[in-house]
Amino acid sequence: MRRTKVSALWRRIWAAKYLYLMFFPVLLYYIFMRYAPMAGLVIAFKNYNAFAGFAKSPWVGFKYFSQFFNSIYCWRLIRNTLLINLYDLVFNFPASIVLALLLNEVRQPRFKKVTQTITYMPYFISSVVLASMVVQFLSPTGGLVNNIIESMGGKRTYFMTQPESFRTIYTLMNLWKNIGWNSIIFLAAISGINGELYEACTVDGGGHLRRMWHITLPGILPTVIVLLIMRLGHMMDAGYETILLLQNNANLETSDVIGTYVYRRGILKNEYSYSTAVGIFQSVIGFVLVIASNWLSRRFSETSLW
Amino acid sequence: MKKLVRILCLVLALSLMPLAFASADDPVTISIWASDRENMPMRNGLMTINMLQDILGIKIDVQSAPTESLDEKYGLLMSDPASIPTIVQYKANKLLQYKEAWMILDDYINETDTPNLWKVYSDPVIRRYVSDSEGHIRFIGQRTAITCGKLWFYRQDWLDKLQLKAPTTMEELYETFLAIKQGDPNGNGEADEIPFSVRKQGSNNRANLMPFVNSWGIEETFFAEDDVVKFGAVDARMKDALAWLNKCYEAGLIDSEYLTLSKQDWYSRWTNEQVFMSYDWSAYIDNVGNLFKDTDSPVHIVGTAPMAGPTGIAQTRDQLQPITVDEDWNAAIYVGASEEQVKAAMKLFDYLYSEEGMLLLNFGVKGEHYDVDENGNLYYTELIMHNPDGLSAQDALRQYGIQSMLTLLQDARYERAFVSDEVNRTRDLYEQEGHIGPAFPTLAFTDEERDIINEKYTDIETYVNETLDKFIMGRESLDGFDAFVEQVNGMGLPEVLKVYQDAYNRYMGL
To answer: What is the CB neighbour count within 10 angstroms for residue B12?
Structure first.
């Protein structure tokens, strides 16, 4: 009985052998690049010294975890990281859906293509260039934004040194950079919706808004939920490279996130064990968030990651 | 089919032949990991690197690392011991962090094998700079010829135009700044003058305002006074210094963008006739002057002594040390190097410290890059000083790898031959009139000491960094200074100071 089951499985695999063949490199990638390095996590509990090697570095237990939680910056770092991500989630995530919906309604193909290209473009600018453009635009002497403010009778402001402006600047920058790129997947989801549904809706007398509300949105909802769950997994990490480029002593109060702190201590001071410990903490929180949101989503809607 | 296999075997065997017959007298290869700057290249194929290979009969393989991300690159290099080359060149404190990775050079530096190194490193004062916490020599540094690297400079023509006296104290400097701001020396009818501006250097640009603080007899971070290690940011004198800086900042006398100003923007502030004064590497007196070359601006930039603080101290403290431990060219030899490679590396270092090697690395090839006049003075040829490709003298020289990032024995004649008389005059003034204050040494710590520093000082550093700028920009009132001091102490500064004191005592032999 069991034998036949196994051979049935093999037969199924054999039938789809080319698909499995294509999948194989991906499997290897995950084994070697994602799972194997996890063994290295052990250095979070050791005082790692590259010259002694993994095995000979002394065990220190939870020393680095407690150092992080006892730091006076611990709470500030967690708060900043969460808030920056929350801003992104609340403003930028829906923005790309809205853009996709708007683009979908455009009936002029030429205009649609031009708009799409213009909105994708910033995504391909390197973050170093992007950050220095932002600093230039916001410069109190001769920056574009301040020139506009002044011409309208306002007062020049040095935004980059104001902690209260940092999150707005960062969120707007990411909006500008990512909105076009992120809308691609939603546009793809929209184009997968059966056209007959629209026709049926039109026959029933539904206008543009009705069609959007009753057909397009429910149609892309599974995609939105899956992306949202995956996005929640990254609530504890913010792209530290860009933040680092916009950071200065004066805005540290809101711009210092876990990533930049770990960079300062872990990479610049070569404390690998410490940065690994904080990395584990970030990943555990992200993992819990993914599990929880997936559970919620399965409970209250039909879609979930698994 | 069989035939094909046979042919393939033959081809394979033939292609492996050169490996099998690698002759025994092939030159030893030593690899060097070094920082590579746009204006200071350190790459394979430089003229000096090629000549050193020929002269010493060794093969040198340079592994260039871009200077912008050096800390990061170094961290990655050291996390994989298998990738470490024969020689690594970096900042002293970074090298000493991985003490066990480097050969102890005590026995390699002696009168018979390396006489030129011995001449320099047998001096116990110099030896300290290159030693670890147990007193073993772990690297070879660059021996500087001059001590004065950075200077204060301002526009003399503006002082003349407004009939102002040259300021000599911090109070007079404040008055002068005010007069410049209000006197409209650029004559455009707007108070757009920025009396003091600095360009961004490194990641913490406030550091470039901190030379002002030296006039109060302190430094921003660690410094020693009567052999007691102190932390400048929490010193009572820092409060007065910050009050001065804040007063200037609020009145618009210090560039409001001092935290983020790029070099290009700084330059355009000069050419827009906005900047009066700055503090920078000495060559910038000439560099800034050259910006105005094709204009009819009456600009006249002169160097000036530091301003005297309340107790009459007029010093700069971030000057060059006899061995430039803070720079990227301290060379250590990896413990994993073969005996032959170590020998070759020591031969290279000794040659760099010899008269012949010094001339090659500072001046180049005689008759081509430099020459000697009838009085025995060295001078650079037209090829360097008026380069046909329009390069500046420094760039012309460095494209050959002369004065590159290789550790070397510097020569005062090199420094003097390059810069204008004004720079030389100011530099002499600093060196002869006692305007160069004591520099705090780069200390070598034990592993336990380093643990304490990493744990406590990372947070202290962050807190001090952001709070000092708040005080300067007036975002926080100086009434909060005492609370700030208390907070820093609560974060473990006393423990960190004790560690520094111990290391300092070891260093000074106390």
So the answer is: 9
Cα gap B119→B492, rounded to integer Å: 43
pLDDT digits (tens, 9 = 90+) for B456-470: 998 899 899 989 999
pTM above 0.90, yes or no: no
pLDDT tens digits, residue range B169-179?
A: 999 999 999 99
In this prediction, residue B352 carries a pLDDT of 93
- Structure confidence by residue, pLDDT tens digits, B273-295: 999 999 998 889 988 998 898 88
Q: Which of B260, B269, B468 is the best substitution to test chain A (most A C-beta atoms within 10 A)?
A: B260
Residue A115 forms contact with B (CB below 8 Å) = no
The pLDDT value given to residue B22? 47
Chain A interface includes B438 (CB < 8 A): no
B473 interfacial to chain A (CB closer than 8 Å):
yes
- Residue A230 belongs to some domain of the structure: yes
Q: Is residue A268 part of a domain?
A: yes
Residue in chain B closest to A157 (alpha carbons) equals B256
* Average pLDDT across chain B, whole number: 89
Rounded to the nearest angstrom, the gap between the alpha carbon of residue A258 and the centroid of all alpha carbons in its chain is 15
Q: Indicate yes or no: CB of A249 within 8 angstroms of CB of B206.
A: yes
Query: How many structural domains compose chain A?
Result: 1
Whole-angstrom CA distances from A118 to A180, A189, B392 are 8, 21, 42
The answer on pLDDT for A191 being more than 50 is yes
Contacts for B215 with CB less than 8 Å, ≥ 6 apart: B170, B241, B306, B307, B308, B309, B313, B314, B315
Q: CB distance from A272 to chain B under 8 Å?
A: yes
Q: Does B75 touch chain A (CB under 8 A)?
A: yes
Enclosing domain of residue A161: 69-300
ipTM score of complex: 0.77
Assigned domain for A46 exists: no
Collect all residues of chain A within an 8 Å Cβ-Cβ radius of residue B93.
none
Report chain A's mean pLDDT, rounded to a whole number: 89
The CATH code of the domain that includes A248 is: 1.10.3720.10
Q: What pairs with residue B366 in β-bridges? A: B370
Chain B contact present for A159, CB below 8 A:
no
Q: How distant is the Cα of A119 from the closest Cα of chain B, in angstroms? A: 29
Structure tokens of A71? Answer: 């730091």
A13 domain residue, yes or no: no
Please name which of B202, B273, B214 lies closest in space to residue B245, comparing C-alpha atoms.
B214
pLDDT digits (tens, 9 = 90+) for A115-162: 999 999 999 999 889 998 998 899 887 789 999 998 998 888 889 888
Residues in chain B within 8 Å Cβ distance of A161: 259-260, 469, 473
